Amino acid sequence: MDRLLDVGHGFESGVREKSALQSNEVHDMKFLPYLLLTSSFAVSASEVTSYRDRTELDSLGNRLVVRTSSMVSPSGDVAYVEQRLDQIDETTYVYDHNAQTEATKKFHEEFCAQRGLLPSIDGESILSGPDAISGWSCHLSKDQFGERSDLMVPDHFRGDRSSDYVIARAPSGSAAAGANFQLYGTIQAKSSQAGPLSSSVSGYNERCRFSQVWNYGGEFSTFREISVNCIVHQPQFISTRIEACIPRQCGQATGTFSIRESRAGQRRVE
Fold this sequence. Notes:
This protein has a single domain, classed as Immunoglobulin-like (Sandwich), CATH 2.60.40. It starts with 36 loop residues before the first strand and ends with a strand. The chain has helices at 102-113, 142-147, and strands at 37-39, 42-44, 51-57, 63-72, 78-89, 92-95, 118-119, 124-128, 132-139, 165-169, 173-176, 181-191, 195-203, 208-216, 220-230, 236-246, 249-260, 266-268. The protein is mainly beta. The strands form 3 sheets. Strands 1, 3, 4, 5, 6, 8, 11, 13, 14, 16 and 17 form an 11-stranded mixed beta sheet that branches. A 5-stranded antiparallel beta sheet has the order 7-9-15-12-10, with helices on one face. Strand 4 and strand 5 form a beta hairpin. It is globular, with a radius of gyration of 19 Å.
């Protein structure tokens, strides 16, 4: 069940200093093309579960990890997606929208549009944990926010323009073991003063986590969706969590994902 809780400030923000050791390991997997590609074909579980990392230098000579991974889009297609990541330590990466290829930016836009949202291209984004593969975020435009009547504003906040609030909804659902899957969390927030909105979505005891910080120059109302692409190899129940803080208030929610035995054979992705 979704729940709104006030918790103390101290929500983690910032990035750890870069480690002197920077992994260049290539993970075992079948070859994935280094192009963004959305396909419709028969796929076995083993063909959509892995990712591959390679390193390259950007225009300033900084080393980036280029990760090609598979994910199932909201329409049910299997997409092979490339993300360019700045590695902080063995399992922590910074995602910068401006560093991505045009193909990746286009996928991000289409990914959010399928959910009636726009891509979030601002803020600081951190992907972390040994089972975290990629992360994405979307948002409603200011005009969309005002037009949506289905947003989950508590009754005691309706009509009260002075009330700050954070409403979080954690991921819940099911996925197959040994296959990549998305954890979607949502945040609705209103702040009467300028400052940051800090947020994170995670699962599997923080082994899969994506966090973001957005800074606002004045009072704000916003709806954000953040998601992280994860993998869990054994059938089990895992807990999920979403957290968010604005200058005067924080909110959090928890959920559960059922990781089930993967089906043998092939399945058709239309």
